[in-house]
Write a structure and sequence with these properties.
By secondary structure, this protein is an all-alpha fold. It is built from 18 helices and two strands. Strands 1-2 form a two-stranded antiparallel sheet. α5 runs parallel beside α18. The chain starts with a helix and ends in a 7-residue tail after the last helix.
């Protein structure tokens, strides 16, 4: 029996360490690894899976998933059949996944430094592959640069036709880069900082080449957060570096026709809150008859004759998406429309000006509001706030010599959560396999660190 348990633990540890690699190969691989972690984890830990779990935070996590279920099936049975309602049940796998990750942390069955090192190595290789692709036109497996009309280029590396290289690098480099301080173990702070800033530039250039604009902006915001949170006197260096990098990046964009075009399109596409509010206040009684018809406003006979209507330029599409999203949320503000509800309900709104249908609202906050209402968003806000404050308190006031948890680990987790939940970030879907897997992985590690008792040295 002991031998079987040891084998199970080895398998579980291996699955945990290779989990970041699965994000390269897509949703199927991520789900297979995630389900394997859940099964092996529950078999190994059994009834001890929730041992010493903070009851308040456990209640909040369970409550969020219950809200996802209830919202989806309240809408399914009483309002409008939602073909995605079954996904609210399948989504429970992330709660089970979080339980296993936390159990691994509090039982000290995994080394978080190893995990960060894997994230770093993975993101380093992806970034290097993008640089190679930019220099010779192909990456190491022969993928070409993707070019759209107007000379817009994406260096996607191993991701081929998927434009996610920048998001991948933002996700894994910002957590993995802190592993170098444990990998190198160089005593001189200046050398450590030089290496750290060199790697920051390396990842920044790779994200710039990827063509993904929001990850680039979020990487700069990550540097600002780092300067704000870093508790030692070297924080001035981080602020100075972030300022210099921003200036250099601006200079680079100004001197590149392709980059300045991309930056210009990005800036003009930023949704104006005043326009959103004004548009939501407008009423169009003459268009009521087209509600839920699925006919878009510009195809209606009333397109040019509707009073007070003004169609805004589409640009990046975020303005009409956000207007549509908030409009749908206002219809069901308490518990939302259920999981994946935006893509199922947006056809009810496109008969109005400046509304559009997409798969999701492209913003975590708006998506959570749409799918789980104010209740769901409040729960997530409480979870994230609780974990950030407690992890920051441990980072700020703990004594590393009395703990086996490095300050760099706390800093990596805190900054990863901040960049994931930055409220003004345009994103993929919160409920997608890629994003949910990483979010609940990080939250699982975070709650594990929060529940972990310090082991004092003799």
């Amino acid at each position: 029996m002991i031998t079987v348990n040891k084998a199970l633990l080895k398998i579980l540890q291996s699955l945990f360490y290779i989990f970041p690699v699965c994000f390269i190969f897509g949703n199927l691989t991520i789900n297979l690894a995630l389900i394997s972690i859940i099964l092996v984890g529950f078999i190994y830990y059994k009834k001890n899976i929730l041992k010493d779990f903070n009851k308040k935070i456990l209640f909040l996590f369970v409550s969020f998933f219950i809200v996802v279920l209830l919202s989806s099936y309240i809408n399914y049975f009483f309002i409008e059949a939602n073909k995605d309602a079954i996904k609210s049940i399948l989504y429970l796998r992330y709660l089970l996944f979080l339980f296993v990750i936390r159990a691994l942390i509090i039982n000290r069955h995994i080394n978080i430094n190893y995990f960060l090192s894997i994230c770093f190595l993975l993101s380093f290789l992806i970034a290097l592959d993008i640089l190679i692709q930019s220099l010779i036109g192909k990456n190491i497996i022969g993928n070409n640069i993707i070019e759209f009309p107007g000379g817009i280029k994406y260096h996607t590396g191993v991701f081929g036709n998927e434009l996610i290289a920048g998001s991948f690098l933002l996700t894994f480099s910002t957590i993995g880069i802190f592993s170098i301080f444990n990998l190198l173990k160089i005593e001189k702070k200046l050398i450590n900082l030089i290496i750290f800033f060199t790697l920051i530039l390396f990842f920044l250039i790779s994200i710039l080449l990827s063509g993904n604009r929001m990850p680039l902006l979020m990487f700069l915001i990550f540097l600002v957060f780092l300067g704000l949170i870093y508790k030692k006197k070297e924080k001035l260096y981080f602020f100075s570096f972030a300022t210099i990098v921003s200036i250099l990046l601006s200079f680079l964009i100004i001197n590149s026709e392709n980059l300045i075009k991309r930056a210009g399109n990005f800036i003009v596409g930023i949704p104006n809150p005043i326009i959103i509010i004004e548009e939501l206040k407008k009423e169009y009684p003459n268009l009521k008859k087209y509600e839920s018809s699925g006919i878009q406003f510009h195809n209606l006979e009333e397109f040019k004759s509707t009073k007070n209507s003004k169609v805004y330029p589409f640009f990046t599409g975020h303005l009409p998406i956000y207007i549509t999203s908030i409009d749908l949320f206002l219809d069901k503000p308490i518990v939302g429309g259920g999981i994946k509800s935006f893509r199922n309900n947006c056809h009810n709104k496109i008969h109005l000006p400046n509304r559009v249908c997409e798969n999701h609202p492209h913003n975590y906050i708006l998506e959570i509001l749409n799918d789980t209402g104010l209740i769901g968003l409040t729960i997530i806000f409480c979870i994230v706030t609780y974990l950030l404050l407690n992890n920051y308190k441990d980072y700020k006031f703990s004594e590393p010599e009395k703990s086996k948890i490095s300050n760099w680990i706390y800093l990596a987790i805190i900054l990863s959560i901040l960049t994931q939940f930055f409220p003004f970030k345009s994103t993929g879907s919160f409920f997608s396999t890629f994003n949910s897997s990483f979010i609940f992985l990080i939250l699982g590690i975070s709650i594990g660190l929060n529940d972990l008792k310090y082991e004092k040295r003799p």
